[in-house]
Amino acid sequence: MAQQKHRIFNDYRDLFWSLIPLVLIAIVLAGAASQCTVATNGPTQGQVPHFDADSALRADAKSLPFPIRKPELPQDWVSNSGSRETIVAAGGGPMSTVGYLTPQGTYMRFSQSSASEEALARHVLGSRYATGTQDVAGQKWVVFTEPTEESAWIADLGGVRVLITGAGNEAAFTTLAKAVTTAQPLSK
Predict the structure, then answer these.
(1) Which of 131, 152, 161, 180 has the lowest tally of Cβ within 10 angstroms?
(2) Cβ–Cβ < 8 Å for 185, 60
(3) What is the C-alpha separation between 155 and 141, in angstroms, rounded?
(4) pTM (2 d.p.)
(5) Per-domain residue ranges for the chain?
């Protein structure tokens, strides 16, 4: 009968050889559970979620106390998200938001609210301040830009404030601002 080594004679080689079966078992189990993959060509774009902006905005128009607009955007803008929340700060109110993916793959969203411009800006943008204005389709938009943050544009359309934010370029902001400005409020 072979005699076992005393513990003081064990070294790193013994540890190494005892871990090999455990590592192999872990790799086999992970592969069997499809938790291990080898990516050879980098990340790929996932499926874009579908959001029915038309139905959501029509529902908001019926239930919210301010005029809701549904912008007519180019066919290649895809609505992918939406939400409704309430701004509770002074001058606040309900807010409806819809998000889109542009043809360039950037995310843009616009929020509509009966909240004051200041309350809406503080709620969404925090402590940022206006840095200029833009005129789009005869409507003045207050512009908020910071080097490390997404840009934002806010306009007062009479009875409703609209805020646009996103990672898009100036053309994307202008497209969305023009579509919102020229849209007529939906019927209640």
Answers:
(1) 131
(2) no
(3) 5
(4) 0.74
(5) 10-38, 53-182
